[in-house]
Design goal:
The complex is a heterodimer. Chain A is mostly beta strands. In chain A, 0% of the residues lie in helices and 54% in strands. Chain A is globular, with a radius of gyration of 14 Å. The termini of chain A are far apart. Chain B is mostly beta strands. Helix content of chain B is 0%, strand content 54%. In chain B, strands 2, 4, 5, 6, 9, 10 and 11 form a seven-stranded mixed beta sheet that branches. Chain B has a four-stranded antiparallel beta sheet with strand order 1-3-8-7, with no helix packed on it. Classes of the chains: A mainly beta, B mainly beta. Chains A and B meet through strand 11 of A and strand 4, strand 5, strand 9 and strand 10 of B.
């Protein structure tokens, strides 16, 4: 069965600190996508990244970076020099490339960036 | 702005009633997905349509149904509503299967 676990329910950090959001996934499939979405207080879901299971290269986009490790089934997300605007709920998600297109979401991590 | 539109933005209704949520996908997208976000269940996939046909089904209740019309917009029908159906309902669209899904702003349903 497919499953995404975000063990951190809620995190609070002071602005400008770095913060890492953990994501561990389970799947029996060899080909899949991993995602991160941001849900700010306004409620919409904002796509951040999609990573193919064949590509284990880490990715950096501005203050955001992602560490994909197949050996530990983890896809962690780091925000460097956090800002108050980063306050949101962040969802890690998984989609199987061989079955259907549905996205399986983790429960989310609520991130508070304190000024 | 993802290009996916959902109406209405908010909906308040009573138990036992029936409502219809509407979704217009991004121009050119053939696939439409519906997700439910509730406090206890989190974000869950409900159903997917591709070019008018049902493609995949998730944890969708029998009281719920959906369809995709020839112009590719989709409707999610929720009937015999219960308090527990109160949630944020998202629609997403993609060009085809296995491609990036773009989410709409959601419809917040409150059942009283």
């Amino acid at each position: 069965a497919q499953k995404v676990t975000q063990a951190q329910t809620e995190i609070s950090v002071v602005e400008k600190e770095d913060v890492t959001l953990d994501c561990v996934y389970e799947t029996r499939d060899t080909t899949y996508y991993l995602f991160w979405y941001k849900q700010p207080p306004s409620g919409e879901l904002v796509f951040l990244i999609r990573r193919n299971s064949f590509d284990e290269q880490n990715e950096i986009s501005g203050r955001y970076s992602w560490n994909f490790q197949k050996s530990t089934s983890s896809f962690n997300f780091t925000i460097t020099a956090s800002q108050v605007v980063d306050s949101a709920v962040y969802f890690c998600a998984l989609s199987d490339l061989n079955r259907d297109d549905k996205i399986i979401f983790g429960k989310g991590t609520r991130l508070h960036i304190l000024p | 702005d993802s290009g996916v539109t959902q109406t209405p933005k908010h909906l308040i209704t009573a138990t036992g009633q029936r409502v219809t949520l509407r979704c217009s996908p991004r121009s050119g997208d053939l696939s439409v997905y519906w997700y439910q976000q509730s406090l206890d269940q989190g974000l869950q996939f409900l159903i997917q349509y591709y070019n008018g046909e049902e493609r995949a089904k998730g944890n969708i209740l029998e009281r719920f149904s959906a369809q995709q019309f020839p112009d590719l917009h989709s409707e999610l029908n929720l009937s015999s509503l219960e308090l527990g159906d109160s949630a944020l309902y998202f629609c997403a669209s993609s060009v085809a299967g296995q491609s990036e899904q773009y989410f709409g702003p959601g419809t917040r349903l409150t059942v009283t």
